[in-house]
Write a structure and sequence with these properties.
about 575 residues; mainly alpha; flat; single chain; 2 strands
Length: about 575
């Protein structure tokens, strides 16, 4: 062992000094001392590669892998040798094998990225695409120069050059398409993968796939493309690294082709062309730059976990056990009682139910559907299972939910109180939201009706505004008899109404005559800013809507004459 270390140290010193022959000789002596030392084969492979003996570097890399398949440097040596031979496909395959044996090793990821980039940049198709892009860019520059010309002669000269560059760009694009068409399907798949893999690291992440989806569908927003990409990566990511390798990408494409009902050949050619030449939306570029890759990867993993759970029939069984009345959705009480069966703690179950429903029930339905239940179960598993997965906990959950458990009167009371608190909280939140909207709208209407701009609405301004609304909406309410103007008669609001007092009066008016305040404000704001002919058209359309929606409530208000337009 001592001799081996001695020769190893000699070899390392020679390697550091750039003395490749001495390094190879020392490592060879070390191998004679210990033929099963995988490190020495790795070191000698590196020295062989440095001195240009690529075949020997490859052989030592393969021997290193044979001796220790879970040693990442063996794959690095073998991949580097293939890269030096310009056998980029084999290099990429080697690095990929290494990452399966030794996940998340930066050296292997960088090696695969370098080989992927080299393969892409040395292909004839890539060269044709680069020529076309360069000519197109130069043509645009010439257009700017021509438009800024200070003489007719200069303009003509610049335009002539612009047309030549446009012609060169078109010829290069035609050459690109011709070369692309002649590729085999396997080559097209690799080419498509390479152009989508923008950072050339040998994987397609969520942001890269989102960009490709937008180029296929120009009307797709950045967020929509990102949501779709998260779903797709979560579905087809079989190794759980939140990105797609070539095999996973191929599986994704197979499903995509069935959805679009197109051939692989047509789709691949279209996507390679679009990805190479399509202009990118500037806003999408800005949004993509600030998107956090790590956060997106975490979203993909969470989405993948959710999809696995939703596909597991045991989740459906657990949902049915929570859904005791068979409604197909879960109420606050369903969730709380289900959690109580799992924890035997009603107070904590009610608290957890409230937190989860407030987080999941964004549309204030006060229920959760099956997919939301899947998210809820992810939270439950994370809380109760510690390091366990849903797969490991599912049977335990079923057992707990099928065990008869009597709820004490004290626990029933706790549940009732918690349900009341939850309902009140939701109602208060909704009221705050509606109040905020109403306040903003009322301020806008106040500004429109305050015709002299003095910051108050006097009797004449209020009457003029209400008369205009009534006339435009086809109403004939007895405003004087309703008491709407009593505030002025009693001097309750001094000489005019401030915004808060105006809000009180308008609320009184809409409640008295059964009119939707938001609808009134929207209508009056539109009528106030539209030209006369357009305002009349809008008013006619509003009358139809108002009549159909408000007829029933309008009939309640006696004795006032509340007549809609028939």
């Amino acid at each position: 062992m001592g001799k081996t270390n001695e020769f190893r140290d000699q070899g390392n010193k020679a390697f550091k000094n750039g003395e490749w022959d001495k390094a190879v000789k020392a490592y060879s002596e070390a191998i004679k001392q210990n033929p099963k030392d995988h490190n020495m084969y790795s070191n000698r492979s590196a020295a062989y590669l440095k001195k240009g003996s690529i075949d020997k570097a490859l052989a030592d890399g393969e021997k290193c892998i044979e001796l220790k398949p879970d040693f990442h440097k063996g794959y690095s040596r073998k991949g580097a040798a293939y890269h030096a031979m310009k056998k980029y496909d084999k290099a990429i395959d080697t690095y990929r094998q290494g990452l399966k044996a030794c996940p998340n090793v930066p050296a292997l990821e960088k090696g695969m990225a370098a080989s992927s980039r080299a393969k892409s940049e040395t292909s004839d198709t890539h060269a044709a695409g680069q020529k076309a892009k360069a000519a197109r860019k130069a043509s645009k520059n010439q257009t700017k120069r021509a438009n800024n010309s200070d003489s007719v002669s200069s303009y003509v000269q610049q335009k002539r050059m612009e047309l030549k560059l446009q012609k060169a760009a078109l010829e290069a694009q035609l050459d690109f398409i011709d070369k692309l068409t002649k590729m085999s399907n396997e080559e097209k798949l690799q080419q498509l993968f390479n152009v989508i893999d923008d950072d050339h690291n040998g994987y397609i992440d969520t942001k890269e796939l989102a960009t490709a989806l937008r180029r296929r569908n120009a009307s797709m927003t950045f967020q929509a493309s990102l949501d779709k990409a998260i779903d797709m990566v979560a579905i087809f990511d079989t190794d759980g690294d939140a990105r797609l390798d070539l095999d996973e990408f191929e599986s994704f494409l197979e499903v995509m082709l069935k959805e679009l009902d197109v051939s692989f050949q047509d789709f691949a050619e279209y996507m390679v062309f679009q990805t190479t030449f399509a202009p990118e939306d500037e806003k999408a570029i800005e949004e993509a730059e600030v998107a956090d890759k790590e956060a997106l990867a975490q979203q993909v993993k969470e989405r993948g976990t959710l999809l696995e759970m939703l596909a597991d029939p045991r989740l459906g069984e657990i949902f049915d056990l929570f859904d005791k009345n068979g409604a197909g959705v879960l109420s606050f009480k369903d969730v709380a009682i289900g959690l109580y069966q799992l924890t035997s703690d009603m107070e904590q179950s009610a608290k957890t139910s409230m937190e989860l429903l407030l987080m999941l029930d964004k549309e204030d339905q006060r229920t959760v559907n099956y997919e939301q239940f899947g998210r809820l179960m992810m939270g439950i598993v994370a809380t109760l299972g510690k390091d366990k997965s849903f797969d490991q906990m599912a049977d335990e959950l079923v057992l707990a939910l099928t065990t008869n458990m009597t709820i004490s009167e004290e626990d029933k009371q706790s549940l009732f109180v918690a349900e009341t608190v939850y309902s009140d909280f939701q109602a208060a939140t909704r009221q705050q939201h509606e109040t905020a909207i109403s306040f903003g709208r009322l301020n806008k209407l106040f500004e429109l009706w305050d015709t002299n701009g003095d910051g108050d609405i006097d009797y004449d301004e209020l009457k003029a505004g209400l008369d205009k609304y009534e006339k435009s909406a086809g109403l004939n309410n007895n405003l004087e008899a309703s008491g709407i103007f009593n505030a002025f008669n009693n001097k309750g609001f001094d000489e005019g109404l401030n915004p808060q007092e105006f809000g009180f009066v308008m609320q009184n008016y809409t409640q008295t005559f059964g009119i939707d305040l938001h609808q009134l404000i929207d209508f009056m704001c539109m009528v106030s800013v539209l030209p006369a002919d357009r305002a009349e058209q809008y008013a006619l359309a509003y009358k139809e809507t108002f009549t159909s929606n408000q007829r029933a409530s309008a009939q309640q208000w006696e004795p006032f004459d509340f007549v809609g337009v028939e």
